[in-house]
Amino acid sequence: MLRRLYTEIGDGGFGPEGGLASLTPRRVPHWQVPDWPCATTMHTDQPEWGASASWFFLTGGGCTMEWYVSLIAVDHPVLLWDADGWVPDRAQDPHDGLRHAMPSLRHWLWTWADGGNLWDQVLAPPDAAAGDFKDWMLD
Prior knowledge:
By secondary structure, this protein is α+β, with helices and mostly antiparallel strands. About 25% of the residues lie in helices and about 15% in strands. Residues about 130-139 have low confidence and may be disordered.
């Protein structure tokens, strides 16, 4: 699905949260930000938390948050990482800022396309399965 989005619709600039990141570094003249985010350079730009190579950057989520999709997990769940969502003084690591957002990329995009709120599931209280999710996402 992700491949079809980028090859049949466009190289980013459309979609939730102000638009998906581009696959290539580029300037977008009509955008208020000088450079459109590039998904392929996100891992080199933010090495401090060590995002897995299997997580593909989708778009920024505002402030210190970023949306990712898992490229290897079944159904390609969408993840939200919050740089302020973990506390080193409490023996937490950057992965504690990671939240399961949607069960699939398809669900995330349809929620947006139907005018739904992408934040509803992310902001809901974590359930008992959250620990299991974190364990398999770190592998």
